[in-house]
Amino acid sequence: MALRLKKVIPIAILGSLVLVATLIKMNPPSTPQRNDFSGPQMSVEAVTVTPQDYRIRLESYGTIQPRTQSMLVAQVGGQIVSVNPNVRDGGFFEKGDILVSIDDRDYAADVRIAEASLADARQALAEAEARTNQAREDWARLGNNGEPSDLVLRVPQLEAARARVLSAESTLEKTKLDLQRTKIRAPFAGRVLRKFVDQGQVVSQNAQIAEIYATDVVEIRLPLRNRDLPFIDLPEAYRYSNAVENVGAAVEIESELAGDTTWQATLVRTEGAIDETARQLHVIAQIDNPFGSAGDGQIPLKIGQYVTARLAGNIVSDALVIPNTAIYQGTYVYIVEDGLLRRRDIDIAWQNDAEAVVAQGLEPNDQLVTTPLGQVTSGLRVSVIGEEPDQKSAAKRRGGPDGAGPVGANRGARQ
């Protein structure tokens, strides 16, 4: 009986397995199929990239500095007897104005003494000339033959008398010059930065009176980034043999201190060396007549005032200009191509705080995505906000779910 069971049980198990397999094959399990989602997964805003002539505008910063700045010093010593009321910190003056007067009585006396000395020297010269003429006549009257010697004619005494006249004239000229220098005059129209003396003070020769600067022109030293240099004309072609100086780009100057007031300047020269600290090239902008508009209610410029300069650069033809908000990590953008989101690596030729000029990576008529995107994958199906229905249908026919090519088919796209 046991032997029979051992033979029957395996046959029964094998038959059961065959039966189950037959039933599964005849009635296979059915799993519901999920339809592919063929619609867009997100909506984005996009703009068409269009070539345009674009004016590069560079931005820089600097401080107002005078082109002509001098230390006014006394060329003669003495007591200050009067000071021009405008000789105060910030005071204006015109060329030739008497700024400070020094007591001139001693110098006037020196002039009179020098005049007397000159008169004596001229008298001595006249006597020496008369003696020389008399000696020549005596030589001829005595019947001497030949030309008389210089000693006979008293030529050395005559030359000495002439030298004393020249010396007396120079002394008189110097004393008159010292007398004139007691009136310290303005060498140019300008403004006072600092005053160091006042009325009643006794000053010595070469004493500092005031620090002044000319108001006809002020300058701003502006650093330029190295990548901006190809996009601006620098005034470096000036030659002294030319009659006209090479003037560079126009510059607009503004300052927070002056509100909406702006000043027009021009680039006049470029420094001859790269700044060792910043490793940048500096250019000099010049403002003509910077205080001429002060009477119109505008705030006049101040020396040392911090200003913003906007320089007119070159015009780039057929430039592809895009907003900085559409650029990610400074190296790539997203475009919409055949209804799919594509990533494009770009090279930036120039960039400011708001927009960038693209050198490579974009083509005209590309649809640039301007919607800020997070972590997205290239190849994602998207729809453009505001796109007309017929445009959507055309995009679907070109690259819909049935006809869309692989994600990597776009040249230059990064998966």
UniProtKB/TrEMBL annotation:
<dbReference type="InterPro" id="IPR058625">
    <property type="entry name" value="MdtA-like_BSH"/>
</dbReference>
<dbReference type="GO" id="GO:1990281">
    <property type="term" value="C:efflux pump complex"/>
</dbReference>
<comment type="similarity">
    <text>Belongs to the membrane fusion protein (MFP) (TC 8.A.1) family.</text>
</comment>
<feature type="coiled-coil region">
    <location>
        <begin position="111"/>
        <end position="178"/>
    </location>
</feature>
<dbReference type="GO" id="GO:0015562">
    <property type="term" value="F:efflux transmembrane transporter activity"/>
</dbReference>
<feature type="region of interest" description="Disordered">
    <location>
        <begin position="384"/>
        <end position="415"/>
    </location>
</feature>
<dbReference type="Pfam" id="PF25917">
    <property type="entry name" value="BSH_RND"/>
</dbReference>
<keyword id="KW-0175">Coiled coil</keyword>
<protein>
    <submittedName>
        <fullName>Efflux transporter periplasmic adaptor subunit</fullName>
    </submittedName>
</protein>
<dbReference type="InterPro" id="IPR006143">
    <property type="entry name" value="RND_pump_MFP"/>
</dbReference>
<feature type="domain" description="Multidrug resistance protein MdtA-like barrel-sandwich hybrid">
    <location>
        <begin position="73"/>
        <end position="210"/>
    </location>
</feature>
